[in-house]
């Protein structure tokens, strides 16, 4: 099954986007409540509303982190055992953000993959940029 890949150029410097991706309170504002810390192998959770076959908890671990360029986390919840990768590149004064959610396998992942594909598109196109726009400039 195909990975979800979203790429977008955001009108903000990479440091601001990185902060929104790696500070727990910032992640909570545009993604979900969490206990994330930007530390390799840190285990944390995202919490959302339960759904059939899903208790509302996404269990994660920081698998890779290279500030302010890359972050990879495991993403386990319901039938999913996947990985989400964030890659940030400078584009002048803007940031090219690529989000790759990978590891969807089997028919049990078909509906979650579809739902997450729509969700990531909305998050990266609307919610993340709107939130980053509220942050003070990060040097």
UniProtKB/TrEMBL annotation:
Pfam families according to UniProt: AHSA1
Top-level taxon of the source organism: Bacteria
SUPFAM superfamilies in alphabetical order: Bet v1-like
InterPro entries assigned to the protein according to its UniProt record, in alphabetical order: ASHA1/2-like_C, START-like_dom_sf
CDD domains, per the entry: SRPBCC_CalC_Aha1-like
Transmembrane segments: none
Stretches assigned to the Activator of Hsp90 ATPase homologue 1/2-like C-terminal domain: 11-132
Family from the record: Belongs to the AHA1 family.
Name the record gives this protein: Activator of Hsp90 ATPase homologue 1/2-like C-terminal domain-containing protein
Organism encoding this protein: Candidatus Phycosocius bacilliformis
Organism lineage string: Bacteria, Pseudomonadati, Pseudomonadota, Alphaproteobacteria, Caulobacterales
């Amino acid at each position: 099954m195909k990975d979800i890949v979203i790429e977008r150029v955001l009108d903000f410097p990479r440091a601001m986007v990185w902060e929104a991706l790696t500070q727990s309170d910032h992640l909570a504002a545009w993604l979900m409540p969490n206990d994330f810390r930007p530390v390799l192998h840190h285990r944390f959770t995202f919490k959302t509303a339960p759904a059939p076959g899903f208790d509302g908890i996404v269990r994660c671990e920081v698998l890779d982190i290279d500030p302010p360029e890359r972050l990879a986390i495991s993403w386990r919840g319901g039938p999913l055992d996947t990985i989400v990768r964030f890659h940030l590149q400078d584009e002048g004064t803007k940031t090219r953000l690529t989000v790759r959610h990978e590891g969807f396998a089997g028919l049990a992942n078909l509906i979650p993959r579809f739902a997450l594909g729509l969700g990531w598109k909305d998050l990266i196109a609307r919610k993340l940029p709107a939130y980053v726009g509220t942050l003070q400039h990060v040097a």
